[in-house]
Amino acid sequence: MRRKTKLIHGGIAGDVHTGAVSVPIYQVSTYKHEAVGVHKGYEYSRTGNPTRHALEELIKDVEEGYAGFAFSSGMAAITAVMMLFNSGDHVILTDDVYGGTYRIMTKVLNRLGIASTFVDTSDLANIEAHIQQNTKAIYIETPTNPLLKITDIQGASALAKRHGLLTIVDNTFSTPYWQTPIALGADIVIHSATKYLGGHSDVVAGLVVVNSEQLATDLHFIQNSTGGILGPQDSWLLMRGMKTLGIRMEEHEENTRKIVEFLTNHPVVTRVYYPGLPSHPNHDVAKKQMRGFGGMVSFDVGSAEKAEQVLTRVRYFTLAESLGAVESLISLPAKMTHASIPKERRAELGITDGLIRISVGLEDADDLIEDLAQALA
């Protein structure tokens, strides 16, 4: 089954009880037992719900994994995955991960004894140099947010296996339409499903896919124990959004290609970050592991003042956090998504005050380019 077909016919199709083409919203908290311990597969909706199960089967299929899990947000998904580890364990993470990931590792999980080191994972030697005796996993974001750095998933996974570590990939920017990390050797894939998978800025959700029965058993135990599940209505919304993921990602890509060409030739723009550019330092790796380069691009306009000017002048780009929706969004990472990262750390990473991130939507590309042109003037 090809990808667009799998997005529509993957997982559980329709409803066997009524013939409904769309999986119903099972708005229910508990289920009748025919006798103590005898039920029809569901006993309580924190443990399992038919609508959520249909979504979990769908993301399992499109990510080519063993089992899928749906959570109430991307951060709930990340938290559940990190609960696989114990006090005293250590995790290596990509240095310019999403600010929320950095925050939970350095402000919350560190208090529970889970240590972390942030390194430039686009250099595999750099990962290996930071492996400690208590390291349990390599956590990769590729492409990264907001600098669109690329890590070789296959290389990092092979390195992790040699050291007995798990490989975890945040696949939010690429989606399974453009990149399938488990096929490249990863053990766990995480999504902020609020973004491209939902695609319409109307649902907050997180998804996880694992590659083995043991990880599935362990993560289901954590999901059921901690309770950060996705409700049935949001599960249904997410499945509806995923049916059009393929055509949306292709259109995002086409619009982004035109905007990147405009930005690279604009005299005010000092640098453009996009893995589809041949000048990107890991363009060859991106071509090897991605079927498309996506709809996210960051660019530097040299100063906070110029960036503020662009943000206040744009008409079709909405100033908002989040990404991956049908409407184009614009943000200033240093003051928004990555504000929780200390200023000196942002400076080390290259997240300057003049760095602007855009999520290219599905509007007419010519309108978006004209909008950026007048905002940059």
Textual characterization of the structure:
- One of its GO terms (cellular component) is cytoplasm.
- One of its GO terms (biological process) is transsulfuration.
- 48% of the residues are buried.
- The chain has 14 helices and twelve strands.
- Helix 2 runs parallel beside helix 9.
- The protein starts with a helix and ends with a helix.
- It folds into two domains: 3-240, Type I PLP-dependent aspartate aminotransferase-like (Major domain) (Aspartate Aminotransferase, domain 2, 3-Layer(aba) Sandwich), CATH 3.40.640.10; 245-376, Aspartate Aminotransferase, domain 1, CATH 3.90.1150.
- The model has no long low-confidence stretch (mean pLDDT 95).
- The chain has 377 residues and is an alpha/beta fold.
- Strand 4, helix 6 and strand 5 form a beta-alpha-beta unit.
- The protein is globular and about 75 Å long.
